[in-house]
Amino acid sequence: MSEDIYKETILDHFRHPRNFGELPNANARAREANVVCGDVIEMQLRVDGDKVEDVRFQGQGCAISLASASKLTEFSKGKSVSEIKQLGKRDMIRVLGSDPGVARVECLLLGLKVLKIAIRNHLGDKASSEIEED
Amino acid sequence: MKTEAKHLPVARRKSSVLDVAKIREDFPILKRKIGGKPLVFLDSAATSQKPKQVIAAIERYYKEYNANVHRGVHRLSEEATIHFEQAREKFARFIGAKNAREIVFVRNTTEALNLVAFTWARTNLRPGDRVLLTEMEHHSNIIPWQILARERSIKLDYIRITDDGLLDSNSFKELIREKPKILSLAHVSNALGTINPLKEMTQEAHNLGATVIVDAAQSVPHMPVDVVDLGCDFMAASGHKMLAPTGIGALYGRYELLDRMDPFMGGGEMIKEVHLHDARWNDPPWKFEAGTPNIEGVIGLGVAVDYLSKLGMQNVRQHEREITKYALAHLQDVKGLILYGTRDVEKRGAAISFNLGDIHAHDLATILDTQGIAIRSGHHCAQPLMERLKVPATSRASFYIYNATKEVDMLVRALDAARKMFRA
Which residues of chain B does A6 touch, with a Cβ-Cβ cutoff of 8 Å? Predict the structure, then answer.
């Protein structure tokens, strides 16, 4: 584990989360908790066809889970649904800009998990929203 | 300033009662470096480190007399059985039990509590009966009762806690008048460190006909405990929090209760005779020890008891009282730090829960880990207590015989640095 997990941008996103709050006319949403530490993230999306038009999130949690969710909202705006379905742990490390290590992987992936569930709910998809961990 | 100053041994300042520097020599793991920094292990309430004496005893068992206990007539089995049963006697003496047959070996405190819930309580509770617990219980002293409550339609009551983390005596008085069949509570809270007034509570509970079960996971390793003086009916403890290996724990039960109880699990060892449709149970404690036991664990526990007894449990308690006092005084100087639990070191043990500003406990634990400091973060398997404190999680530093005040200083410095980094 490196000392610089908590890069300045992570602390910035933790203190000032982007796209935070309710999304009017959202047509996809999901809310999940991290059972290990009680963090809760809710994602609200507006999906048009295969495109994520807009996304907002709210919730509470540690710096890793909030900064990951915040950066993920920025990343996923304008992306295609199929692109988001492909995202995995490595992508989230890239999005966050830091690898918080095995002990904090649940925190890193919580936002992505919620985003995928929201999309699955929207599509009425039975497909798995599990996240590739390697 | 000499450059080697930072390599001074951790136990520079001597505890008044324990020679911490000498004790540290017995714990090989304390020489470890974490990312180039010396390990500061402040998580003994989760599990303690193990002295070389315990490690050596386990190695000796496997190298010199490994055999199954109680059944073989050969020399190795005889030696293993002698060591095994001697450890039972040592543990019985350690907690003041009059009779070694009142000690049942189990995996841990959780198993011991489950054993009582699913044997004694399952037999003796009737629909409508009440079980009295407290708001500060570990999940292991909540969930077995919830399972039983569903099965037997019994009612669970919880003694409230005060804002400084003590049991509310009015709440206790009120709820004990409801005549619960069982009072089951922690001797010392794993999350708040609170030492509960067990002797007085047991007396009152007995006067009203309740059976008293004690979760002693956080007391037996840290202070003198005498089951006869406390008067409790059952007491559960874990070896791994008191220098012994994981996977070994003990249940104390008054002999006449154990004698009347049904077995917990069926199998070898726990029977006297078996026919195709019928069997006769063995006597306590073997009636409750089905299957080949954790022999190395029991042997390790016996040596752990020797180690602690040699230090003297009064001394262990005094050392922890001093380091807790020191830690509370210095932690409260950290800007933005919120301490949970009482400040009165006579009413608390050496596990200290806190939060720092709005930094999440997991972030704090990660940051401290980069400094080589191991603390616990989370709900400490006490979610109802976290709800009561209105926090999702806390950080917890806990101290034991090998911790020195210098480690408190390192914790305080690291907390200050974390606060600055997070601008909390």
Answer: 363, 366-367, 421-422
What ipTM did this prediction achieve?
0.85
Model confidence pLDDT, tens digit, residues B13-28: 556 799 999 999 999 9
Of A37, A64, A104, the CB nearest to B378: A37
Q: What is the DSSP track for B98-127?
A: S-GGGEEEESSHHHHHHHHIIIIIHHH--T
Tell me the whole-structure pTM to 2 decimals: 0.92
Distances B296 to A37, B56, B72, B87 between C-alpha atoms, Å: 34, 11, 17, 11
Asked whether residue B44 is assigned to any structural domain, the reply reads no
Fold of A23-121: Sufe protein. Chain: A (3.90.1010)
Question: Rounded distance, CA A105 to CA A123, Å?
Answer: 27
A20 DSSP assignment: B
In angstroms, the CA B298 to CA B88 distance is 8
Active site residue ranges of B: 381
> Are residues B253 and B202 part of one domain?
yes
What is the per-residue pLDDT across B79-95, written as a single tens digit (0 to 9) for each? Answer: 999 999 999 999 999 99
Do both B291 and B349 map to the same domain?
Answer: no
> Is the Cβ–Cβ distance between B165 and B195 less than 8 Å?
no
